[in-house]
Amino acid sequence: MKRERVLIVEDEPAVARGLEYALKLEGFEVFRANTGAKALEMTSREQPDLITLDLRLPDMSGYDVCRALRSQSHRQPILMLTAKDEELDKVLGLELGADDYMVKPYGLRELVSRIRALLRRAYGELAAQSENQVHRFEGLEIDLTHLEVRLEGEVVELTPTEFRLLHYLAARPNVPVSRSGLVEAVWGYEGDVNSDRTVDVHIRHLRQKIERDAANPVRLVTVRGFGYKFQGRRM
Length: 235
Ligand code: CA
Hints:
By secondary structure, this protein is of the alpha/beta class. The chain contains eight helices and twelve strands. It has a five-stranded parallel beta sheet, with helices on both faces. The chain has a four-stranded antiparallel beta sheet with strand order 6-7-8-9, with helices on one face. It has a three-stranded antiparallel beta sheet with strand order 10-12-11. Calcium ion (CA) binds next to loops.
């Protein structure tokens, strides 16, 4: 079996070593970068399956790294690790394309299970479950074989989390799904108030990518006080 590869972006050597040790014990192949510049370079060179990203790096912020990775079309899951006093910043991280975050101090066991959940939903589960399947709606195709979304025939670049969220909703068209239901299905853990915001941010991103007018969505519709539904008719 192929070992999954994780890039740890962290400038504090003790923290980085602790993470590396825990992940290696779990069978991951681990790379380390202690600056933002190295993180970008190593992502291009090593193509890790997942990136853990510290927010405060000596040369640039985790946000900048996140933005740069996404603008270079790196789509692997990014797990942001933030300090306790940076609550507002978590949302910014998600805005810039991170998939999930954890607040320091976190337990290593919880971290490993988050990483596994991110990897599973990014690469494993979907492909295995749904071979040769395409959900077709007017102007929009969700292709589970190629893990690809096409809007009017053009491929739209989605992160694995965005893909999974869209797929989950589109697989049950016109059925409202609660935010906590989405957290459980898409992120793989139990929802709370914070994770509701995670859902909202990812929905907003998806709207920017697949709606003609993100401010007046016709596909990803808000169900007030509850959650979201995918509106559309199968072709
Ligand atoms: Ca740091």
